[in-house]
């Protein structure tokens, strides 16, 4: 499934539309270059879960937990683990936990990822500075269902 946005607020709105569909233990990997909108998307998910905090990329502490919303949100930015991996981080406890995990730069902890997840790729546009293509690729039945539900949400709004 693909969806195009033309400003940051619309990317947040897609995240906010996804939020009510999420369940404990869901794992979402956010793929895309620096500045593509991974953290922007996460802000929308947080808002949709009812987390009214300023969500920033946790590049220096790697993982930030938010417990104010409908479900706990575990926001991970593992950019600093390039070439290191996530072996010592206890990531599985987050992935199997009672919250939702959103992971930026998940390729750097590839060995530690669960088998099933939703991959969301954000792509910048060569011509339009504010345009992003958002590509949803489910891995596993749970996430196929989730993407179907999200597609319905986005097309009926
Ligand atoms: P990342 O976490 O992928 O490095 P950020 O979300 O931190 O990226 O930054 C994305 C930047 O791009 C923000 O400054 C945001 O305002 C801007 N932007 C412009 N248009 C969009 C869009 N359509 N979707 C998401 N972000 C956008
Ligand atoms: Mg970021």
What would you say this structure looks like, in words?
This protein has 157 residues and is an alpha/beta fold. 28% of the residues lie in helices and 25% in strands. It has helices at 8-18, 38-49, 91-95, 141-156; strands at 2-5, 27-31, 63-66, 73-77, 100-104, 117-124, 132-139. A hairpin with a 7-residue loop joins strand 6 (117-124) and strand 7 (132-139). The two termini are 16 Å apart. Bound molecules: adenosine-5'-diphosphate and magnesium ion (MG). Adenosine-5'-diphosphate binds at residues 5-8, 10-11, 32, 34-40, 57, 104, 130, 132. Its main location: cytoplasm. One of its GO terms (biological process) is tRNA threonylcarbamoyladenosine modification. It is found in: Cytoplasm.
In short:
Its main location: cytoplasm. This protein is α/β, with parallel strands linked by helices and 157 residues long.
Secondary-structure map:
Blueprint: E1 2-5, H1 8-18, E2 27-31, H2 38-49, E3 63-66, E4 73-77, H3 91-95, E5 100-104, E6 117-124, E7 132-139, H4 141-156
Parallel strand pairs: 2-5, 2-6, 4-5
Antiparallel strand pairs: 1-7, 3-4, 6-7
Helix pairs in contact: 1-2
Bound molecules: adenosine-5'-diphosphate and magnesium ion.
Helix/strand class: alpha/beta
Helix content: 25-40%
Q: How would the global form be characterised?
A: globular
Strand segment tally:
7
State the CATH architecture.
Answer: 3-Layer(aba) Sandwich
| Unique bound compounds | adenosine-5'-diphosphate, magnesium ion
């Amino acid at each position: 499934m693909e969806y195009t946005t033309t400003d940051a607020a619309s990317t947040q709105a897609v995240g906010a539309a996804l939020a009510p569909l999420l369940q404990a233990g869901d794992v979402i990997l956010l793929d895309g270059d620096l500045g593509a909108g991974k953290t922007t998307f996460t802000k929308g998910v947080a808002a949709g879960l009812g987390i009214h905090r300023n969500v920033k990329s946790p590049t220096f502490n790697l993982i930030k937990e938010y417990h104010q919303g409908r479900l706990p949100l575990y926001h991970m930015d593992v950019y600093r683990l390039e070439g290191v991996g996530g072996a010592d981080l206890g990531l599985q406890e987050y992935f199997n936990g009672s919250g939702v995990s959103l992971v930026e730069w998940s390729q750097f902890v590839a060995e530690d990822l669960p088998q099933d997840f939703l991959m969301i790729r954000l792509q910048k546009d060569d011509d339009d500075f504010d345009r992003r293509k958002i590509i949803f690729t489910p891995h596993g039945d749970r996430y196929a269902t989730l993407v179907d539900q999200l597609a319905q949400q986005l097309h009926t709004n």
